[in-house]
Amino acid sequence: MSGINLSGAHIAKTTKLFINGEFPRTESGRSYPVKTKDGDILTHLCQASRKDLRNAVAAAQSAQAGWAKKTAYNRAQILYRMAEMLEGRMQEFVANRMLVQGLSNEQASAEVNGAIDALVYYAGFADKYSQVMASVNPVSGPFHNFTTPEPVGLVAMLYDQPFDFSTFMGMIASVICSGNTLVVVFDEPGATLLSEIGEVFKTSDLPAGVVNLLSGHVDELTSHMALHMEIQSILLASTDETRRGDIKEMAVENMKRVVPWDFAQKDLAPIVAFTEAKTIWHPVGL
Amino acid sequence: MLDKMIKKKEKNKHKDKDKKKHHDKKIVEAKKRKSHKNFQFEYSESLESTDVVKIQPKNALFINGEFVEPTEGSYFPTINPGDGEVLAEVAEASAKDVDMAVRAARKAYETTWSKISGAERGKYLFRIARMIQERAREFAVLETLDNGKPIKESRDVDIPLVAAHFFYNAGWADKLDFAFPGKKVQPLGVAAQVIPWNFPLLMAAWKIAPALAAGNCVVLKPAETTPLSALLLAEVIQQSGLPPGVVNIVTGAGATGSHLVNHPDINKVAFTGSTQVGKMIAKATAKTNKRLTLELGGKSAHIVYEDAAIDQAIEGVVNGIFFNQGHVCCAGSRLLVEESIAQVFTDKLKDRMQKIRVGNPLDKNTDIGAINSHRELEKIRDFVNGAREEGWDYFSASATEAPSRGFYHKPCFFNHVASSATVFRKEVFGPVLAISTFRTPAEAIAKANDTPYGLAAGVWSEKASKIQKTALGLKAGVIWANTYNKFDPSSPFGGYNESGWGREGGRHGLYPYLEVQ
Amino acid sequence: MIHDRFVTGHGGRKIPIPYQPVDQVGAEERAAFFTKRSIKKESKLDALYAIISMIDLTTLEGADTPGRVRQMCAKAKFPVPSGIDHDFSKHPKARAVPSVAAVCVYPSMVPHAAKALQGTAIHIASVATAFPAGQLPLEIKLADVRAAVSYGADEIDMVINRGAFLSGDYQTVFDEIIQIKEACGDAHLKVILETGELLTYDRVQFASHLAMLAGADFIKTSTGKVTPAATLPVTLVMLNAIKDYYQSTGVRVGMKPAGGIRDSKMAIQYLCMVNEVLGPEWLTPDLFRFGASSLLNDVLKQIYKQVTGRYYYDKIFSID
C-alpha cells in the first residue's frame, strides 16, 4: 500500500481540484477536512466555489469540439487506456475505499474492478453506438435521409447518491465516450479519490478539459450548475427528490436536458440520453 | 388579347417566297420581321369549392368517443383568417371537462387499449389513415378555412402527410420489439398533447399516431385558433370504431392546456409550440414524474455558399421562409449568403419574390395565404417595424396585392443585417427573412450556431465534402442540404438546445412514448 | 459562379462559358410547381390563343410530301376555317383564332411551304444542319442551311454537334454555331441542344450558354426524334440560362421547347413557367415558341369548350 498512511498518522495535504488537465486549488482558498471511517483526518478537500465551476465549464466547453472531432476509434483507445491506468493503480483505489468507507478488501476490489470493466465496456461502445442508433430513413422522394447521434455537448454531473466507484466511473465513461465533455461535482467520500482519478485521466491521453472534477458542497453548487447557460445537459446522480425537482425547474432556463441516472451501469441507454439525433436530407440526382 | 390577334391577322405582311430570289434580297425582307405584342398573362381567380365541408355552428368536445357539451357551457369563436369572419363556435373545456377526458383515457388504457394486441392497434391506425385519404379534400378545405394556409399546401402537403403519419406509425404497432432490439418496451399510459395552430391537423397526426402505435391513450388539445380539423378528425376516429376514450380531443385556450398538462393522472406530456410556453410546461412538470417532449421555436440558418446551384438555392430560400406564411418552427429565417455572391443572390431573390402570389387561401394559385390571426399579424408587424426602426434594409414584393379583408402580410426581407439585429435573433414566425453575409465556411457555421435555438438549418453547395463538413458542424436537429422544409413520417424531427427535447417521426419518434427497459 | 471553361472567339479572344451547376431534384421540384397553377376562365382562353400564336407547326417525317406540307400550311393559316358548317366556326371568338407562328419542315419541303404560305405572316422554319443527328461534315451542314434559306426559310432550327459537345470539344460546337449563324444571314437561328442526349441539367445549362454566346436567337430543347424531348424541368433550366444571359448582356434570347407537348394543359404549364421565370416580356412569338404538331388540335378543342361550354368531339377539327 502506498500513498496513504494506514497507521493513521496525519499527512498534511490537500486534495486539489482537477480542471483543464491541471490540479489547481480552489480559487476561494477554502478547504475542509475529511475523516476516515475511524475518525482520523484523512485529507483536506477543496471546497469548490461557483468560480471554480465557471472555470471548469469553460475548460469543458473549449475541449468539447476537439474531443468530439477525434475519431471514435481514438476515443475508444483513450477510454481503454484509462482502464489500463486505473488497473495499474488499483491498490491505491482499493485502499481508499477500505479506509474511507470501511469496505472489505473484497468489496473494494469488486468496485474498482467494476470501474475498470465499465471503462472497457464504453471504450468498446465508442465506435459502435452510432451504428446501433443511426438510421437511414425511407422518405418518400428523391432524398438520401439519415439520422445519426451527436454528443449533446457539455454535461454537468451532480453526484450525491451513496458513493460507488464502479457506478461513478460508468457514468463518466458513458457520457464522454460519445464526445461529450464533463464537469463533475461530488463530495466525500468519493471526492477523496479526486486526485487519483484525475491522475488516471491525465496519464491516459485524455485531452485536458474533457473531464473536470470538483469537490465541494453539492448544495452550494447546485443552482449555479442548473442555471449555467453553457451547460447543455445534467446527469443527476441523486436520490434527493427535492434536489431533482429543483434542478429540473432551474434547468428550464436554457432547456438543459436533465437526466436522472436510472440506467444499468453498462448499457446503451445512457449513451442515448446524452446524444442528440441529427437528421440530414440530401437530394439524390444528377 | 383577342383584339390583338385580330389586328395581327389584318396586318399580314407580304412575304416573297420566290426560291430563286437572291440571298441578299432575302436579308432585306427578313429585316421587316414584325414584332408581336406581349401577352399579359393574368391568372383568373380559381377558387376551391367549399361545398365539401359542413361546419357546425357549435362544436362540442370529443370525450370517451362522444361529442359532449362543455360542462360550463362556454364557447369561443374561431375565425377564418382569410376574411376575418367567424367560422364557428367551439367549446371551451374547463378543468372538469379535462378531468373527464383524462379519466376516459385512463379507463380506455386500462380496459381496452393495453389489452389488445399491437396488430389490432395497428389496424385502427391504418383504417384512420385510409379514412383521411378518402376525405382528403374535405380536410384540406377545412384546414385552409380555419388556418389561412393556401389550399395548394393543405391539399398537397398537410393532408397527405397526415395520412402518411397514421399509415407509417400503424405499421410500428406490432413491431415495437424491432424498434429497440434487446429491450422490453411498454406504453407509458395517458399522454397529454398540446399542439399549435400552424399545421393543425398535421401536428395532431404527429402526436396521436406514434402515441397510439406505442399503446398509449391520449387527450389532445388543438390550438384555440384552429380547432376545426382536429374535431373532424374526431369524427373520423369515431367512425373508425376506435375504442371510446383512446383519443379525446378537448378544445380551449391556454387555461385548458394548463389544466391538461397539470392533471395528476397524466404520464406523458408532448407539446409543440413556442419556446416561452414550452418552458412554462417544463417548469410545471419539473417536480412530477411526467415524461416530457417539447418541439419549440427556432431561428434556423440557411447557408448559401458561392458554389451552390443558385437557382435551386433561391427556391430553397423562398420555400424555407415563405412556406405556410413563414409560420413554421423550422423556417429558414436567417439567410447567410457568401459575400462573393450576395449581390447576385439578393437580386435574384427580389426578382423571385415579385412572382409570389399573396391572396385568398382558397385560390389554387395562392402561394402565400393569410396570417393565422390578427394577433399574429400584429406581432409580425411589430417585428417588421422594429427592424425598420433599427435601420436594416427593407424589401417587400409580391405579384398580387393582398385582399382588403382578412389578415395578410407580404413576403419581405431585411438585407445587410448584423448578427446582433433583433430580426436576426428572435423568432418572427412570419414571412420575414433576415439576410447576412459570411466570408468563410467556419464563419458561416459559427454564425449559424450563434443562437440559443437548434431546430434546423439549410446548406447549399454543389461540393459534397463541404456539405458534409458544414452539416456536421451545424448544431441543429434537422439539416436540409440542397433542399429545405421537407417532412416525412419516417424522418425524425426535433431540435437541439432551446428548440426542445426529443424527436418526433421515424423510429426515434416512438421512443418518447415508450418505457424502454 | 465558376468560370473554368473557355472558348476562343474572334481575334483569339477568350470567352468564358458560365458554368452554373443545377440540382436536379430542386429543378424538377420547381418545374412541378408550375403544374399546380390553375388557369381557368378568361385567363385560360387568353392563354389558348397565345399558345396558338406561338406554335411552330411541325412535320418532320421521311414520308413528308408536298401534299402533306400544303395541308399543314392550310391548317397553319386558318386553324378554324369559317366555311365549316358549324355554329362554332362562325363565332367571333373562333374567327379570332390566330394563325400559328411558323411551320417547321425539312429543307426539301421549304419551297412547298413557301408557296402555300405566300402572303401570310407565318414564318417558315426549316431544320437544317444534317437534322436530326448532325453527324455530317460542316460544309454539308452549311450547304444545308444556305439551301433552306434560299428556298425561303426565314428561321433555321439547327442541331448542335453533340459528338463534339460530349467529348468536351466545346470550341467545335461554338465555331459551328457561329458559322451556321453566318450562313443564316438574317434568318433567325434556333439552336437545338437535344437535351435528351445531354441528359444532365448541368450540361443543358452549359450548352445553353454556349449556344447563346455563339449567337443563337432561340435555344430549343429537342429534335423530337429523341426521348425525352421537351420537359418542364429541362425548359426551366434553359429559361434560367436565358435569364442569366439577359442579366449579363441585355440580350433577350428566345426559347422553344419541342417534342412531347401534346395538350393545352401542358402548354399552359409552360406559359406559366415562362411568365414567372422570365416574365411577360418573353410571352410573345418573338421569344417563345412551341415545337409541336398535335398540340394545335387540342388547343382548338379547348377553345371550343371555353366558347360553347360544350365538350368537343374529335370530328370538329381536321386531323391535319
The number of helical elements of chain B comes to: 17
Give the count of helical stretches of chain C: 14
Low-confidence segments of chain C: none
What's the name of the CATH homologous superfamily of the largest domain in chain B?
A: Aldehyde Dehydrogenase, Chain A, domain 1
Biggest β-sheet strands, sense, barrel of chain B: 7 strands, mixed
Q: Which overall shape of chain C is indicated by the principal axes computed on the Cα atoms? A: globular
Distance between the termini of chain B: 72 Å
Count of distinct structural domains of chain B: 2
Spatial separation of the terminal alpha carbons of chain C: 47 Å
Q: What is the CATH class name of chain C?
A: Alpha Beta
The helix content of chain C, as a percent range, equals 40-55%
Can you characterise this structure?
- The complex is a heterotrimer of chains A (286), B (517) and C (320).
- Chain A has one domain: 3-Layer(aba) Sandwich (Aldehyde Dehydrogenase, Chain A, domain 1).
- Chain A has ten helices and eleven strands.
- Chain A has helices at 50-69, 72-88, 90-101, 105-125, 129-133, 165-176, 194-202, 218-227, 241-251, 269-273, and strands at residues 14-15, 31-35, 41-46, 135-136, 143-151, 154-159, 181-186, 211-215, 233-237, 257-260, 275-283.
- The mean pLDDT of chain A is 94.
- With 517 residues, chain B is α/β, with parallel strands linked by helices.
- Chain B has two domains: 58-296, Aldehyde Dehydrogenase, Chain A, domain 1 (3-Layer(aba) Sandwich), CATH 3.40.605.10; 301-488, Aldehyde Dehydrogenase, Chain A, domain 2 (3-Layer(aba) Sandwich).
- In chain B, helix 5 (136-147) packs across helix 6 (151-172).
- Chain C is α/β, with parallel strands linked by helices and 320 residues long.
- Chain C has a single domain, classed as TIM Barrel (Alpha-Beta Barrel), CATH 3.20.20.
- In chain C, the strands form two sheets. In chain C, strands 9-8-7-6-5-4-3-10 form an eight-stranded parallel beta sheet. In chain C, strands 1-2 form a two-stranded antiparallel sheet.
- In chain C, helix 6 links the parallel strand 4 and strand 5 (123-127).
- At the B-C interface, helix 1, helix 2 and helix 12 of B face helix 1, helix 2, helix 6, helix 7 and helix 13 of C.
